[in-house]
Design brief:
Blueprint: H1 3-10, E1 20-25, H2 31-43, E2 48-53, E3 57-58, H3 63-83, E4 86-90, E5 94-95, E6 113-124, E7 128-132, E8 137-144, E9 147-151, E10 158-162, E11 167-177, E12 183-184, E13 186-187, H4 203-212, H5 214-221, E14 229-235, E15 244-245, H6 249-257, H7 265-271, H8 278-309, E16 313-317, H9 324-327, H10 334-338, E17 345-349, H11 362-372, E18 378-383, H12 391-402, E19 408-414, H13 426-433, H14 438-443
Parallel strand pairs: 1-2, 1-19, 2-4, 3-13, 4-14, 14-16, 17-18, 18-19
Antiparallel strand pairs: 5-12, 6-11, 6-15, 7-10, 8-9, 8-11
Length: 453
């Protein structure tokens, strides 16, 4: 049966399943090049584009640069409306999402933080030690004779101890700022704390992010929301997978798990990477459960609530979602986070999918779509794959995902007035585009009791 007749038979709008192109918009270029790119996007058969800034700013984001960006976006949105295209907004001026070009972490409390062992000392009988506790100390304890005893301490307090056993192990745990920073179009000075990744566990940080980013778009482009602008796309929010920290973490842990983590925290951190008692696994699992709950509720849910309130959808993907050992760590817990996505998503980058290799991770987003009743599942595809992709391989990569539930493709990467072929999707899309609506259309919306041969 021809695809058009099949679409009519199934009452399906094929155009809804055409892919999007990522539009790396060079806001500093002539706006006619923006209009021409959007028209090219229409001619190629895309249903729209995901817009991401491709113009650098010297220093943190400033009003002059922001206004230049918004002016360029307005040209793109207006032309998209004229051409009948939809638009998704990449939610930051770089990645991981949350930094907003240095506009969020101007307050240190919003920077990502981690728990660290600041003192780790083993004493023999008769040896003495004196420690001035760090400003950011959270817990301390002594391990001796296979028992652990918490030390009651305060910041800057002096602690003195003489070992009266054969061995004593003193551990002090503090918090520190995480060293990871945004890869942003805003090129501030090295080490600028405002370019830090944000604290995903801190709801106030997420709310500031949506104020300085999402609200800015709404104030300028509210007339496009819900029609031309379909939603926001977050990218690889960063969460430290080894014991992140935020204010209120221990109180939340006590509330959810029923015991005081500070009573065992030094014991946990000093043992977690070595052969350890089984109880360490329980403490680790409990900690993981609590902080991933906090990330899902205090970051992803904040974004989702804002989008619903403003009549747009939320999608986006986590970092390293193609490995089981990072699926539930680097950006939080995949399935906890994705319940806040209107369109669950994965990232297909580099050479993750190729003939002869079993690669199943796109099914994660497809499963969330099915289990939670979402209408679509998204894949950012072709980033970092270069210009050497043949059309047959491109179709294999997308078909591989379609049968695992993916039916909304955001394809990397193209821009107006590219500096080199590596920046342009145009040279490799022709052999792929005619295929791109039909298979997605056929697989995704089929009733459960209907099969095709």
């Amino acid at each position: 049966m021809e695809s058009t007749k099949l679409a009519e038979f199934l009452n399906i709008n094929v155009d809804e399943y055409r892919p999007l192109a990522f539009f790396g918009i060079k806001a500093h270029e002539d706006h006619e090049s923006i209009r021409e790119w959007v028209k090219w996007c229409k001619r190629q058969g895309f249903r729209g584009f995901n817009i991401i800034i491709a113009s650098d700013c010297t220093g943190r984001a400033n009003e002059r640069w922001i206004n230049m960006v918004l002016d360029a976006y307005e040209t793109a949105f207006r032309t998209a409306k004229e051409e009948g295209l939809e638009v998704w907004i990449f939610d930051d001026w770089g990645y991981p999402s949350g930094t907003a070009g240095g506009l969020v972490c101007t307050e240190n409390g919003y920077r990502a933080k981690k728990l660290v062992i600041s003192h780790n000392c083993i004493l023999k009988k008769g040896e003495q030690i004196a420690i001035t506790m760090p400003d950011n100390v959270v817990a301390a304890g002594i391990l001796k004779n296979n028992t652990f005893e918490r030390i009651k301490i305060k910041p800057k307090e002096r602690f003195e101890y003489t070992c009266d056993d054969e061995l004593a192990h003193i551990v002090v745990v503090s918090w520190d700022y995480d060293e990871h920073a945004s890869k942003s179009s805003c090129k501030s000075y090295p080490g600028d704390p405002a370019m830090s990744c944000i604290d995903l566990l801190n709801r106030d940080a997420a709310e500031k992010f949506v104020r300085v980013m999402h609200e800015r778009y709404y104030q300028r482009f509210s007339a496009y929301f819900g029609n031309v602008i379909k939603g926001f796309f977050y990218d690889e929010p960063y969460l430290r997978f080894e014991f992140p920290y935020t204010q209120g973490l221990f109180e939340e842990f006590q509330r959810k798990k029923g015991y005081d983590l500070l009573e065992v925290l030094p014991y946990l951190l000093v043992n977690v990477k070595s052969s350890h008692p089984a109880v360490i696994d329980k403490y680790t699992d409990d900690f993981f459960d609590v902080y991933t709950d906090m990330a899902a509720e205090n970051f992803y849910r904040v974004l989702s609530q804002w989008c619903k309130k403003h009549n747009v959808e939320l999608t986006g993907h986590m970092d390293l979602d193609h490995h089981l050992n990072t699926l539930n760590t680097i950006s939080g817990h995949f399935f906890k986070n994705m319940k806040h996505n209107d369109r669950p998503a994965v990232d297909v980058i580099w050479a993750q999918i190729e003939p002869g290799v079993f690669t199943d991770f796109p099914r994660y987003a497809g499963s969330v779509k099915r289990l939670l009743g979402r209408r679509r599942a998204v894949s950012e595809t072709f980033a970092g794959m270069g210009q050497g992709l043949h059309g047959d391989l491109m179709r294999y990569i997308t078909d591989h995902q379609v049968i695992r539930g993916i039916d909304d493709f955001h394809l990397m990467y193209s821009n107006n007035n590219p500096d080199s072929p590596a920046e342009s999707l145009r040279c490799r899309i022709t052999c792929f585009r005619n295929h791109s609506g039909n298979l997605y259309m056929i697989v995704s919306p089929l009733p459960r009791d209907l099969c095709l041969w």
